[in-house]
Specification:
The protein is α+β, with helices and mostly antiparallel strands. It has three domains: 257 residues, 3-Layer(bba) Sandwich (FAD/NAD(P)-binding domain), CATH 3.50.50; 102 residues, D-Amino Acid Oxidase, Chain A, domain 2, CATH 3.30.9.10; 109 residues, 3-Layer(aba) Sandwich (Glutaredoxin), CATH 3.40.30.120. The protein contains 15 helices and 24 strands. Strands 1, 2, 7, 8, 9, 10, 16 and 17 form an eight-stranded mixed β-sheet that branches. An eight-stranded mixed β-sheet has the order 5-4-12-13-14-11-15-18. It has a four-stranded mixed β-sheet with strand order 22-21-23-24, with helices on one face. A hairpin with a 5-residue loop joins strand 13 and strand 14. It is globular.
């Protein structure tokens, strides 16, 4: 199919219904990421997107270690990092001030990547969505995904064999239908697909009609010698936060409240977006009454803390903002959506390829909805303690460690052979010790004289990681391959072309010398044998069958 054949919707003739294994409603950050992950597994898709040319404003997003690990597995980490360095200074602090030209009230995080080296080969970064989305799209399309721009999904119909999506050209009104085995709704907070399915949100609803002001202003002289990634501001005029570009003379200001917070209208800064008012707010947050300000744009949005009651309806799955909405504090929204897609992609691929039973797809909601709920609550905790202390809110969870949220969430489903304890939902990743349901820990190893992370050995297929007395696991893998057919399964044994120079592997994975861990294609431990079982071939094959729903 030619690019023009799917990218244009100005042909008044009714085209033949076009078919793809997977359809996406929405080709933003989460849709493009998930399409890229699917393409890694050899599954083609079509993403239908209302906008042309991607995000229209330079929204900056904070990307966590786990997200960068996923980008690393997809082969784009270095490209993303290079784009980030073009746009932002790395390794900054997160602080609370009364104004940029004023005083610091509190230091929230002294350095963006403090403590991360012990847990991941990747480092957190900021990059704008207009900078990132072309990288995601390029990698996805290179591997077989397609994007249709300028089209709205207006109807979804399911049957026993698949999903039919009706889309209408935004500019032309031309209607076309597309057919897929599955549909992933990544169409954002106001998801049309979720609405069509009648799936409601649970949560606190709207607690601020907020705005994001995009602007240019000469703030660099007030920040000399400071490297601040995020600047929270609270004063008598407003509360919110700045994210500034590399030149520190442009960026955006998020405003959650404006004016006297004892009055309800303070939580509605979106009620007045006249240019003179926006300039006034930027000046108040800067603490410079005569600051020259140019307004580039403004976005209205609702601060909410909600989660969809269901993440699935038959052959349709919700991901990203279509499934969960949270305040921007902590930058969890986009990351959580990308992790949704990463969890779903390998499951869809194995089911579509006939390797797994469709029951494997049941684990998507079981695994991701608890994570979504936990993360929504933690974002709300950060909102009320950083941006809205005036609320005096008591209905929030205790503040969890950032590493618990980024790397330490635990899965408890039929696709994990749990050893118990996963029902608590999260723990510090240094404490997981490779328990089934946790992300496979990062350990630096050595291969052919080069340092390699365990993260680099997993994340695309099923992988067995075995201790130095576990050579028999290589035979078990060969046996499992012969029994399971088309399943892609690899094995790495410490001591067989792979050194553990720091002696950390066994402790990090909770194994004895002859033990082994089975890591799923999403980099999560699905099963482990702490020591060699009587029948390693049978045990491994049974574990994989159980995970695949076979």
């Amino acid at each position: 199919m030619t690019e023009q054949g799917i990218d244009e919707m100005n042909d008044p003739r009714e085209p033949d219904q076009e078919e793809f294994p997977v359809l996406f409603a929405g080709a933003g950050l989460v849709g493009l990421s998930t399409a890229m992950f699917l393409a890694q597994h050899g599954v083609a898709s079509l993403a239908i997107e209302r906008l042309r040319g991607g995000s229209p404003v330079p929204r900056a997003a904070f990307f966590h270690m786990r997200t960068l690990e996923m980008f690393r597995s997809a082969g784009i980490e270095e490209e993303v990092r290079a784009q980030s360095l073009k746009e932002f200074e790395p390794e900054g602090a997160i602080v609370l001030m009364d104004a940029i030209a004023g005083r610091q009230i509190a230091g929230l995080i002294p350095s963006l990547n403090e403590g991360v080296d012990a847990l991941s080969p990747c480092r957190r970064l900021f990059v704008t969505q207009p900078g990132l989305e072309p990288i995601l799209r390029g990698r996805a399309e290179q591997a077989g995904a397609r994007v249709l721009e300028g089209a709205d999904v207006v109807d979804v119909a399911q049957d026993v064999d698949g999903v039919t999506v009706t889309a209408i050209g935004v500019d032309t009104g031309v209607e076309r239908r597309f057919r897929g085995k599955y549909l992933v709704a990544t169409d954002g907070a106001h998801s049309r697909v979720r609405e069509l399915l009648g799936i409601e949100f649970d949560g606190r609803g709207v607690f601020s009609n907020s705005i994001t002001i995009y602007f240019h202003a000469p703030l660099a002289p007030f920040l000399i010698g400071k490297n601040l990634s995020v600047i929270y501001v609270t004063n008598s005029t407003l509360s919110g936060f700045f994210r500034l570009d590399k030149d520190q003379n442009s960026g955006f200001l998020v405003i959650n409240t404006a004016g006297d917070t004892s009055r309800p209208e303070a939580a509605n800064p979106a009620s007045d977006v006249r240019e003179e008012r926006l300039i006034e707010l930027v000046r108040a947050a800067a603490g410079v009454s005569n600051l020259p300000v140019t307004i580039d744009g403004v976005a209205r949005w609702r601060a909410t803390s909600d989660i969809a009651r269901r993440f699935r309806d038959g052959r349709v799955f919700l991901a990203g903002d279509a499934a969960h909405l949270m305040p921007p504090n902590g930058g969890y929204g986009g990351n959580t959506g990308i992790h949704d897609g990463h969890n779903l992609a390998w499951k869809l691929a194995l089911v579509l390829n006939g390797v797994a039973d469709p029951r494997l797809l049941d684990s998507y909601e079981v695994e991701r909805r608890p994570v979504g709920k936990f993360t929504v609550e933690q974002a709300y905790t950060r909102y009320v303690t950083r941006s809205a202390t005036y609320l005096g809110a008591k209905d929030y969870q205790p503040l969890a460690n950032d590493f618990d949220i980024e790397l330490g969430y635990l899965y408890d489903s039929a696709a994990v052979l749990s050893e118990g304890g996963n029902d608590r939902g999260h723990e510090h990743p240094a404490e997981s010790c490779g328990r089934p349901g946790s992300r496979a820990p990062h350990v630096w190893l050595e291969r052919a004289g080069q340092r390699v992370s365990t993260i680099d050995l997993v994340g695309r297929e099923f992988v067995v990681l075995a201790g130095p007395q576990g050579a028999v696991w290589a035979d078990a893998v060969r046996s499992a391959r012969s029994v399971l057919g088309d399943l892609s399964l690899d094995v790495w044994v410490i001591g067989d072309g792979l050194r553990d120079p720091d002696g950390r592997f066994l402790g990090a994975y909770g194994l004895q010398q002859s033990g082994a861990s089975l890591v799923r294609p999403d980099g999560f431990v699905g099963w482990r044998a702490a020591s060699l079982p009587p029948n390693p071939e049978g045990a491994l094959t049974a574990a994989i069958r159980a995970i695949l729903g076979r």
